[in-house]
Design goal:
The chain is mostly helical. Helix 2 crosses helix 5. The longest helix is centred in the middle third of the chain and has 27 residues.
Amino acid sequence: MPSSATPPAARRAKPAAPAEPGRATLTPDTWIEAATAVLVDEGIDHVRVDVLAGQLGVTRGSFYWHFRDREDLLRRVLQAWHDQATEQLTRRLESARDDAQAQLADVISLPFRGRAATRAARIELAIRAWARHRVPPSTKPTRAASPTSRRSFHRSASRRWKPGRGRSCSTPTWSANR
């Protein structure tokens, strides 16, 4: 029985339950990564709270601790994709080289750069398939949600690209060792 000297707020507050040994604490990013993996492997119809909770080995209540509802999760998946696939990549490419042709060659070669690039390409294709799918407009990727910074990067780089003389187009060459 709590003593009367203990303040009421302290009696009501529950201490945080210690995490089980060998089990990591779930964060919103954990849920977003799991949702992205399901989106890539199985499609938007399978990105459901019960499916994700089962994969992560937790209850659905854990999900609602971090997100209002499925739509909130899907919006955050889109935001994570936009941040990772667009903003960071565009900044990296712009800061790496000043030559527009080299920047465009880098963009074209991205899908051929190992596992991380393959995963990024799979996510990109899944997002595009989701955009073509019939889902509520509030959770559907739209052109407005699609990266305007990508378009502006490509537009800017293509304006600066000066193809070689005597040819209608300058084609980048690829080394087999990449």
